[in-house]
Design a protein that fits this description.
The protein is α/β, with parallel strands linked by helices and 457 residues long. The protein is built from 18 helices and 15 strands. The radius of gyration is 21 Å and the shape is globular.
């Protein structure tokens, strides 16, 4: 790790492509939007095109934009491991009749929210000078627990150069080490090339801390443990002066703030957060100030301006906060923010008019994602890379006009424009999905990352 700023370091937002089985199954306990839209008819094609439109808009605005592929769905291997036997058609039919919720789970397109894919430490912070990645185990929900193996293969296929990139195994998939990835992790620094401080936010302590139990949510589960956050920091070689561990406010979790990125977002030296984001607000800010090389710029939204209910309903804090060359920042918000009077007023009067670098608010329609409980920030994994590291990326994953057009055409060819939960048992959908993913892996030049491509290899 160097004490010098590295001007060639820039942030790349790797967005997850929405998968062909995008549906509203209402699988995520504690995710109010997901739970309230369960059973509705989804539009996978529109969802994927909305995601691509956001990526293209940010690319055209000068931001570096990457692409990550979806998972193999339906995951028939998971159903077979649970005792369903026979042909693919038989497995799907039995699951639909005997355990429809399991069928919904193995068809989930939740990997589109790549903020949950992994936790990343850039090389400028790591003692060995390499970028470090740990796939999240996502053990708190079955439909997401299915993701880490493929996620790890995808990341290893793209970040392939072992001299520059270090891959760690997902943490043990037990409640004590429940890890939800970058959705509960924020890196703060004067700029992307300055050594940073890593804010890990957890919802509960598995083994207790200091001999005392911390307050816990009463309505919804706390998904991230302190122990998981500490383990990831250790894997990445981070020292005490580089990390802050803060507990999420249990009242926020009970209001539907299932991840920290639903209640706060950081970028550079700016931490935009709701008054109810952290159990110990003052202590969290003090710890960050003590460790950061550049002054922290906290932007606090009080509950009087935006209630927890409105914060969750609009996903104001699940927005992308992006750095511009002139030092200003752009906040990319979902359309729901514009539809909420108190949230929109706060954006105009409190954020844009405040003494902070946020100088622009951009509204993006990601309604298909929002209905399943994920906003603009859920759709991307933030990776800070130097110029040589960007050049070392394998595959064809950095978005340009040609790749965008090819991906759009790929979606138009393979995706349905209507998908209801009861249609997930259709064997044709499984065949369509595998055909699409096989073509995508060739288009992105990432090799055989899917289980069906590796069987018998």
């Amino acid at each position: 790790m160097s004490d010098e700023r590295r001007p060639d370091y820039r942030e790349v937002n790797f967005d997850g492509l929405v998968g062909p089985t995008h549906n509203y199954a209402g699988l995520a306990l504690g995710n109010v939007a997901s739970m309230s839209h369960g059973g509705l008819v989804a539009n996978p094609k529109e969802a994927a095109l909305q995601g691509l439109a956001k990526m293209k808009a940010l690319m055209e605005a000068g931001y570096l934009q990457g692409v990550l592929p979806p998972q193999q769905r339906p995951d028939l291997g998971a159903l077979r491991a649970l005792g369903f036997t026979g042909s693919d058609e038989r497995v799907l039919a039995r699951a639909a009749g005997e355990a429809p919720q399991l069928l919904r789970a193995v068809c989930s397109a939740s990997s589109m929210w790549t903020a949950n894919a992994a936790t990343v430490t850039p090389s400028v912070d790591a003692p060995d000078g390499r970028l470090h990645l740990t796939p999240a185990n996502l053990q708190s929900s079955f439909h997401r627990f299915l993701e880490p193996a493929t996620t790890g293969r995808v990341l290893q296929a793209i970040f392939r150069d072992e001299s520059r990139f270090a891959h760690h195994p997902a943490l043990p998939a037990t409640p004590a080490f429940s890890d939800e990835g970058a959705a509960n992790h924020t890196r703060l620094a004067g700029d992307h090339g300055e050594p940073g401080v890593h804010l890990y936010v957890y919802g509960r302590e598995a083994f207790g801390w200091g001999g005392e139990s911390s307050p816990a949510p009463k309505r919804f589960p706390a998904r991230q443990t302190r122990e998981a956050s500490q383990a990831v920091a250790r894997q990445h070689g981070l020292a005490d002066h580089q990390v802050v561990f803060a507990q999420q406010h249990p009242e926020a979790i009970d209001a539907g703030v299932f991840h920290n990125d639903v209640i706060s977002v950081g970028n550079g030296p700016v931490l935009l957060y709701h008054e109810m984001a952290f159990l110990d607000e003052a202590g969290t800010l003090e710890a960050l100030r003590e460790r950061m090389r550049s002054p922290l710029i906290p932007v606090r939204v009080p509950v009087e301006a935006v209630s927890l209910e409105d914060a969750v309903g609009s996903y104001l804090f699940n927005s992308q906060l992006l750095s511009n060359p002139d030092g200003s920042m752009t906040l990319v918000v979902p359309g729901e923010c514009q539809e909420n009077e108190s949230v929109w007023r706060t954006l105009q009067d409190h954020l844009l008019a405040g003494a902070n670098p946020i100088g622009e608010v951009v509204v993006k329609d990601v309604k298909q994602s929002m209905r399943n409980g994920g906003g603009p920030a859920c759709l991307r994994l933030r990776v800070v890379l130097g110029a040589e590291e960007r050049a070392a990326l394998a595959g064809r994953v950095l978005l340009d006009d040609a790749l965008h057009d090819e991906l759009t055409a790929w979606v138009e060819r393979h995706y349905r424009d209507r998908l209801a939960p009861e249609e997930l048992a259709d064997p044709a959908l499984a065949r369509e999905s595998l055909t699409a993913l096989d073509e995508l892996s060739r288009l992105l030049e990432i090799g055989s990352v899917y289980p069906f491509q590796r069987e018998g290899a």
